[in-house]
């Protein structure tokens, strides 16, 4: 998931989301009359191979596989005691936005905690991949990608940012999730001339508008042309009041 801009590669939170099943169809298929190895339509499939350290392969459904991987990594990071927060498309999902998950699951950690977080994942049997970028660590589990990110939209992950995270359930596992205002700010700052997909941002803006401190979002994204254009679009669509910086009618919530 693309979270950086400027000197960092374009990894916007919404850049890689595609037409995968939405939240309404992400439940795992439980025991039933279908034969083993069949999906909900009766088509046969091969289960995803299990990684070393896993007790069972991931579900064949890609969206649910991402959620299972998210829960596993979240549980490992919780047990480590390190501060972290879920970010990216899965974070929007945790906030109740019907995003479509495809590529990976993203976690924000402080740079100084990266080594301990990586060690905890490796001990779980999750494969660590050292990327050329210096602002994240990549991992893989069951064919799904995991990003441990130290900089969101070019800004370092800080203790203050992580302290604003909200504990929310991702399926059955509760974990810290980046606060709505911070999530929107990061996504707006990640927009550029090379990636400017407002379509993926509109559902999140509409769904979270009463939980976002829009005045703070405007202040933190001030001067970013794509962010300014998107906020103006929200005014034209009556998602936000027209006429300047303002929070939602019910007051800001971060």
List the topology elements.
Layout: H1 62-80, E1 84-87, H2 88-94, E2 104-109, H3 114-123, E3 127-129, E4 136-141, E5 144-149, E6 151-152, E7 155-156, H4 159-163, E8 166-170, E9 173-177, H5 180-189, H6 202-208, H7 214-220, H8 225-236
Parallel strand pairs: 2-5
Antiparallel strand pairs: 1-2, 3-4, 4-5, 6-7, 8-9
Explain this structure to me?
The chain is α+β, with helices and mostly antiparallel strands. The protein has one domain (45-236): Beta Polymerase, domain 2 (2-Layer Sandwich). Helix content is 30%, strand content 15%. Helix 5 runs parallel beside helix 7.
Note the total helix count.
8
- What portion of residues belong to β-strands? 15-25%
Tell me the radius of gyration.
Answer: 18 Å
Number of β-strand runs: 9
At the first level of CATH, the class is Alpha Beta
Sheet/helix structural class:
alpha+beta
Q: Kindly report the average pLDDT value.
A: 79
Measure the end-to-end span.
22 Å
Please state the second-level CATH architecture: 2-Layer Sandwich
- Principal-axis shape equals globular
SSE run = HEHEHEEEEEHEEHHHH
Main beta sheet strand tally, sense and closure: 5 strands, mixed
How many domains? The number is 1
Kindly identify the CATH topology: Beta Polymerase, domain 2
Assign a percent range to the helix content: 25-40%
Strand order of the largest sheet: 1-2-5-4-3
The poorly predicted ranges are: 1-53, 246-254
Quaternary organisation: single chain
InterPro entries: NT_sf (IPR043519), NTP_transf_5 (IPR039498)
Pfam families: NTP_transf_5
Protein name: Nucleotidyltransferase family protein
